[in-house]
């Protein structure tokens, strides 16, 4: 179990982690952060748990993680963003987590559209951004991050697609140190978000993404669109060249064709 003292000791941040809400077990850190946001809690607050009984992914999917081995947390922000720009927060969170992992392990990670981070081709991190809007603006955002750190065994359903940092590196990782590093990166990059420097974030994300120029399938619900991944739009949409012309897609799951 984390302690507030070990998390905040020497934490070099301006906004993020000024308040920590720690739980040994919780339903979902995102759900808790949303409740805190509705109650007017300060931005930069972080909810962290050693275990989630109802960890969530997109579209009602589940996030499964063994207790005390991983990082499961949510950061509450109140960014100056329009509704249209809110999709950029996923890229921001992905870059912060990627930088922290890379600087601590020396291993390059891969970013997969829209919200995954992979190590050696398998998923180590999922990001779930939940926003609340006031008219056309973001009132608050919850950045939910699930990162597989020291978990070695995965369920049958996940083991082909999921891995952890420790599993790939064959060594245990200091969760507290990694967590602090991630929070510092989220904090540092938040200045860019507030100054609308999204091009910097999108460019850095693109450098870690392998789908551009390749033929991919994008599935959303029962609909699948195939085409060549061309670029990202200024709001983080995926621009796909299909047989019917260009399409910009804002949600879905992608599969990259091998050839
Ligand atoms: C995500 O959704 O990847 C977002 C996951 C966000 C989880 C964090 S944990 C802290 C915070 N509080 C929450 O309640 N949630 C956030 P999506 O792209 O929909 O992917 C979900 C899919 O990933 C599942 O359907 C599984 O196939 C797979 N999955 C589940 N657990 C995994 C794990 N530990 N590692 C890799 N893949 C996993």
Span between N and C termini?
45 Å
> Level of helix content?
25-40%
Biggest sheet: strands, sense, closure?
A: 7 strands, mixed
The distinct ligands, each listed once, are:
biotinyl-5-AMP
Beta-strand portion reads 25-35%
Write the layout of secondary structure elements.
Elements: H1 4-8, E1 20-23, H2 29-38, E2 46-49, E3 71-77, H3 88-105, E4 110-112, E5 116-119, E6 122-134, E7 137-147, H4 165-169, H5 175-194, H6 198-207, E8 215-220, E9 223-232, E10 238-242, E11 245-249, E12 253-256
Parallel strand pairs: 1-2
Antiparallel strand pairs: 2-3, 3-7, 4-5, 5-6, 6-7, 8-9, 8-12, 9-10, 10-11
What's this model, at a glance?
By secondary structure, the chain is an alpha+beta fold. The protein contains 6 helices and 12 strands. A hairpin with a 2-residue loop joins strand 10 and strand 11 (245-249).
Q: How does this structure look, described?
A:
This protein has 259 residues and is of the alpha+beta class. The protein is 26% helix and 29% strand. A hairpin with a 2-residue loop joins strand 6 (122-134) and strand 7. Helix 3 (88-105) packs across helix 5 and helix 3 packs across helix 6 (198-207). The protein is globular and about 55 Å long. The termini are far apart. 39% of the residues are buried. It binds biotinyl-5-AMP (BT5). The site of biotinyl-5-AMP (BT5) has 26 residues, from helix 2, strand 3, strand 6 and strand 7. Biotinyl-5-AMP binds at residues 28-30, 52, 55-58, 61, 63-65, 72-74, 115, 123, 126-128, 144-146, 148, 158, 162.
